[in-house]
Amino acid sequence: MSVNAPTRSSITITKEDFDQEVTIRGWVQDVRNLGGILFVILRDRYGVLQIAVPKKKVPPELFEALTTIPRESVVCVAGIVKESKQAKMGFEIVPKSMEVLSKAASPLPLGVVDKVGVEVETRFNNRFMDLRKAETRAVFEIKSLVLDLIDESLEKEGFVEVFTPKIVASGAEGGASLFEIKYFDKPAYLAQSPQLYKQILMSTGLDRVYEIGPAFRAEPSDTIRHVSEFISFDGEMAFISSQRDVMDVIERCMIEVIKGVSERGSKQLETIGAQIVVPRSPFPVLTYSDAVDVLISEGRMMKEGDDLGTEDEKALGEVMKSRGSDMYWIIEYSESSKPFYIMEKEGTPFSHSFDLDFAGQEIASGGQREHRYDALTNRMEKKGLDASSFRFYLDAFMYGMPPHGGWGLGVERFVQKMLGLPNIREAILFPRDRNRLAP
Ligand code: AMO
User: Fold this and answer.
1) Which of 159, 192, 193, 219 to mutate for ligand 1's pocket (most ligand atoms within 8 Å of CB)?
2) Of 285, 373, 379, 389, whose CB neighbour count within 10 A is largest?
3) Is 15 helix (H, G, I), strand (E, B) or coil?
4) 106 Cα–ligand 1 center, Å
5) Where would I find the beta strands (DSSP E) of 226-338?
6) Is 6 within a domain?
7) Domain identity same for 74 and 185
8) Residues 310 and 409 in one domain
9) pTM, whole model, 2 decimals?
10) Which domain holds residue 75?
11) Cα–ligand 1 centroid distance for 365 (angstroms)
12) Is any atom of ligand 1 closer than 6 Å to the C-beta of 366?
């Protein structure tokens, strides 16, 4: 029967199908019994269809089966497409047969179309059900599009996509946020970033690389922008003249991605209710000191040398927005606040580093690296690091390492900010944090 017929998705049905038989499969979103006629709303990936079941015109057992089918069951319906002025789509389907492919239990742990507010925890505990909502799913279609657009942009710039190990022997981003694991009989860690490996590659001739992959951080803080596992978009490029070369690549990439999303993701943006603005190049550049001055003039209690905390970043975002920019650079952080691999700005307390902020939140950081072996080992020593744990990395600096620089950009932070989502977790299918290891 119809189970073997090709499935038509809701969006492919047009006027051409009027009075023809089609077979559709999907979830029973709602059943409305008006006595003489029953309406079943069937949902698939693309939308919903109305199935109209006039009691007198269909076999009694079919009417009964459709009346009692629990919401969210998966069914296959074969029927005739009928033009209908009342139906939203301009047509409805009058069924000839129906097969239940999977009967849903009830009550549902979470309503798919109910308007009542649901606790965030309930949503994430039942993510399979939460993702049946078009607006939740659309975020992941946009995220997938973002990754395609990044590939397109970096390919044009001559970058090679690489994959570096996620089981590593030493961390690059500070010991406090390392997840230790057991690797056969040795301790090992989950990679916090591809930092050491992407830099090693700079000595090989693969002189422009990027990676999009998972990064792990044992973040103790419970915030709307920190998770324990995120997707990091990293890049590294050799033979740069300054960190500006790196910033230019990211700037072009951000503009192309946001423009691409606004053009190719318009349907999903509408479903989410997000309006996005393509940033203009060049993005404003503030030094860390400029940023502190702006914040002090905004009445924030802070002084030179303080970290830019969440609230500071937010306040700065408001100021930059009022100046017409949602994306802006913050450069010239002190060398002491930056990791060992960042190059110091000679004769100053500053570093050749940058952060990229988007609507009041840091989404990327990077800079020019220290490529000179002696200066690098000195910097490691200054930071209290044991060079012998980084031997495999340092070796690559001993036999010809070009000047280079790069960046790491949190994909979910970017998607969160672009779509105006309240929490980074909304941009992750199955988020991981201090309190969540399942689903
Ligand atoms: P950093 O540690 O600043 O730099 O991380 C780069 C970007 O990754 C994202 N990010 C996170 N996103 C979600 N949850 C977290 N816990 C989290 N931690 C970081 C942010 C951040 O801007 N190796 C350097 C980059 C480089 O210099 O190339 C690094 O990892 O968006």
Assistant:
1) 193
2) 379
3) helix
4) 42
5) 229-238, 285-287, 327-331
6) no
7) no
8) yes
9) 0.96
10) 15-102
11) 7
12) yes
